[in-house]
Amino acid sequence: MSTTTAAEVRADAGGYILRTATPHDVDGARAVMLDTVYRDLRSGYVPRWHADIIDPEASYLRPARCTLLVVERDGEIVATGAVRDRGPQAPPNPQWVADRFPSGSTAQLCRIYVAPEHRRHGLARRLVRELCDFVARAGGYEAVYLHTDPSVPGAEPFWRSLAREVCDERTLPGRGQSVVHFELPVPAAG
């Protein structure tokens, strides 16, 4: 298991606690993730895209350079965010995007999901900040990458406020995928 964990953040004024997930949190985290892929992304569970959701422990809790953070309130998991040490794959992503963000040296931010009734409380920003701190502590990453589905309300403006666009697939000729790829600066180890 990883020794490079995020420090627990004390409850804020709203009673939200952001912390590194434990095996005890897996079911709650999975519920937030599955609700999001069905409700917001409208894709439903697709094994080749979402296998990590079924086994978050193997995907995020065991590997040393990966993590899963959760936000809880009143004992319930209400938000998730993760880092994996894998870049985007081609296909379905453009080959040049996959080449720019190779697995192993790329920290991919993913599964940053907040249950609808807990949105607009700054939870996603807190998750991103803590995930980037994890990336800095883990070391060895040369890029911080993420992608988003711009059809999800609020997702694209949120990421544009934090990250730099690398590729908007909606502008590519013949592309059927509606994905925008972003990069964040690699945080300095502190």
Write up this protein.
This protein has 190 residues and is α+β, with helices and mostly antiparallel strands. The longest helix has 16 residues, at 123-138. It is built from 6 helices and 7 strands. Strands 1-2-3-4-5-7-6 form a 7-stranded mixed β-sheet, sandwiched between helices. The chain starts with 16 loop residues before the first strand and ends in a 6-residue tail after the last strand. It has a single domain (17-184), classed as Gcn5-related N-acetyltransferase (GNAT) (Aminopeptidase). The model has no long low-confidence stretch (mean pLDDT 91). It is 29% helix and 24% strand.
Describe this protein with a few key phrases.
single chain, 190 residues, alpha+beta, Aminopeptidase, 7-stranded mixed beta sheet, 6 helices, 29% helix, globular
- Describe the biggest sheet? 7 strands, mixed
Uncertain stretches of 5 or more adjacent residues: none
N to C succession of SSEs: EHHHEEHEHEHEE
| Name of the CATH architecture | 3-Layer(aba) Sandwich
Number of structural domains = 1
Looking at CATH, the homologous superfamily is Gcn5-related N-acetyltransferase (GNAT)
On the 0 to 100 scale, the average pLDDT is 91
Helix proportion: 25-40%
Helical run tally: 6
Determine the CATH topology. Aminopeptidase
Q: What is the class in the CATH system?
A: Alpha Beta
Could you state the oligomeric state of the chains shown?
single chain
Main sheet strand line-up: 1-2-3-4-5-7-6
Give the total of beta strands: 7
* Straight-line distance between termini: 22 Å
Strand content: 15-25%
